[in-house]
Design goal:
The complex is a heterodimer of chains A (222) and B (224). Chain A is an all-alpha fold and 222 residues long. Chain A has helices spanning 3-26, 34-54, 62-94, 137-152, 165-172, 176-185, 201-214. In chain A, 57% of the residues lie in helices and 0% in strands. The N and C termini of chain B lie far apart (43 Å). The relative contact order of chain B is 0.17. Classes of the chains: A mainly alpha (222), B mainly alpha (224). At the A-B interface, α1, α2 and α3 of A face α1, α2, α4 and α7 of B.
Chain lengths: 222, 224
């Protein structure tokens, strides 16, 4: 076979091995956030080299080229849209960026709250005069964002979805006190206090107030 | 073999396209097009897993770093080099088809299948060590990881076994495909160029997926 072509293949192979070495070496350096960025960029470069040379994309016909490009384009779309969602919603909760909102307690420095297995929210002790007051949607938002959101955002286990007016209207007809009773003591798929016994009844009431507000049923109490 | 080199095809009785194609060139394009559409679906399949992994790694950076440090970087690195080398030998096999260099074709296909098998053996050694160290949260096996990262490490190792397991399954299929090509080449079946090229595309994609699996899983930790 053509010696020149064979030499090209060998050079491509050496380049790929060199990039592998670079990637491994980078994991011995502490570059902070740039560690994952660098390793992913090097992997992407390796992938580009494999597709271009070993997979002959350089000399492929136009239509297979479009099919291959479409595959990577869809992948980028999927990654882009998913990251957009998580960066603007999930990450706010996971990384405690809600700290900028009034009333939100910032998590301790260096500690990232884990929204799936623990609550970044620590209940604030309130003066007794506030107990049994009407739902306070603004403070309920904090409870909601740390606990209720896990099921009510997506309707896990038959939970009424946040913003689903029809579902919440049906339930609100029973009266807020019944809803609070169900949420505190458990009802069907709803675990008592959402599985967070440290929440007070007022916390639960506030969260329900927030979800009623989010469904457009009740205006927030300021 | 590059498409540019595939045309013009060598003259001869067997160099006729299948009845549904106007020309060999069109047939070759259709073959690679179909393969690339399949490969695009594979890219998205693994892409979804990568995406889920990245999101959880961003959510639990410390735990994923600690869990990644328990993987065998040396064996993982050797395996990556083996796969990259197997892509080279697959390309050399592909290049041997059209010059009708049957000996080279058989040799490079055999080396490619062998390298793929060595990868799976090393992977098996890694798995057995991880099973023994109670790091495999699968098949109801015990899972031990120091607090406070136990649950998040369980998530990491679930991703690890899902990603590497699915990759190993793909590689196993690739080895079977290469062995079929090898059998065809040994029997002297003519006009293997499209078949070997397509088998090669699949092989390279399995390599390409590993190129991302390796840094995501093994290089998530600082080894310094």
């Amino acid at each position: 076979m053509d010696e020149r072509t064979r030499r090209n293949h060998l050079l491509v192979w050496l380049l790929l091995l060199g990039l592998l070495g670079l990637n491994i070496a980078s994991s011995f350096l502490d570059l902070g956030i740039f560690n994952p960025i660098l390793t992913t960029a090097v992997a992407a470069l390796q992938a580009f080299i494999i597709v271009t040379f070993f997979m002959s994309m350089r000399s492929a016909a136009p239509v297979p080229r479009i099919a291959a490009a479409a595959g990577f384009f869809w992948l980028l779309l999927m990654i882009g849209l998913t990251l957009t969602d998580y960066q603007t919603r999930f990450e706010d909760i996971a990384l405690g960026r809600l700290a900028s909102k009034p009333g939100w307690e910032a998590p301790a420095a260096g500690r990232v709250p884990n929204p799936l297995s623990e609550s970044g929210y620590s209940p604030v002790s309130r003066p007794p005069t506030l107990a049994a007051a009407a739902p306070d949607a603004a403070s309920g938002e904090r409870v909601y964002a740390s606990v209720c959101i896990l099921c009510h955002a997506r309707g896990v286990g038959g939970a009424p979805r946040t913003g689903d007016k029809a579902a919440w209207l049906k339930r609100s007809e029973q009266g807020v006190d019944t809803l609070v009773d169900h949420a505190v003591n458990g009802y069907k798929g709803m675990p008592p206090k959402g599985g967070h016994p440290e929440l007070s009844e007022q916390d639960v009431r506030n969260a329900i107030g927030y979800m009623l507000y989010a469904a457009g049923i009740q205006s927030p109490r300021r | 073999m590059a498409y540019r080199n595939a045309i013009p095809t060598p003259p001869g009785a067997e160099a006729k396209p299948a009845p549904q194609f106007d020309s060999l060139r069109q047939q070759y394009e259709a073959d690679t097009l179909g393969m690339w559409i399949f490969l695009a679906s594979e890219i998205l399949f693994f892409g979804g897993l990568f995406m889920a992994y990245v999101i959880y790694r961003a959510a639990y950076p410390e735990a994923f770093e600690a869990a990644s440090g328990r993987l065998d970087l040396l064996l993982g690195g050797i395996n990556t080099a083996i796969l990259l080398t197997s892509s080279l030998t697959m390309t050399l096999a592909d290049d041997a088809v059209l010059p009708r260099n049957r000996k080279a074709l058989i040799g490079w296909l055999a080396v490619t299948a062998l390298l793929g098998t060595v990868f799976l053996v090393i992977k098996g050694v890694e798995y057995s060590v991880e099973f023994a160290a109670h790091l495999a949260p699968i098949f109801g096996r015990p899972f031990d990881f120091p607090e406070p990262h136990t649950e998040q490490a369980r998530l990491f190792f679930s991703f690890y076994f899902a990603l590497t397991g699915l990759h190993a399954l793909h590689l196993f299929i690739g080895i079977v495909v290469v062995l079929i090509m090898l059998a065809l080449a040994i029997r002297g079946v003519p006009r293997l160029e499209a078949k070997v090229t397509i088998a090669g595309l699949y092989w390279h994609l399995v390599d390409l997926i590993w190129v991302f699996v390796f840094p995501l899983l093994y290089l998530a930790a600082h080894h310094g």
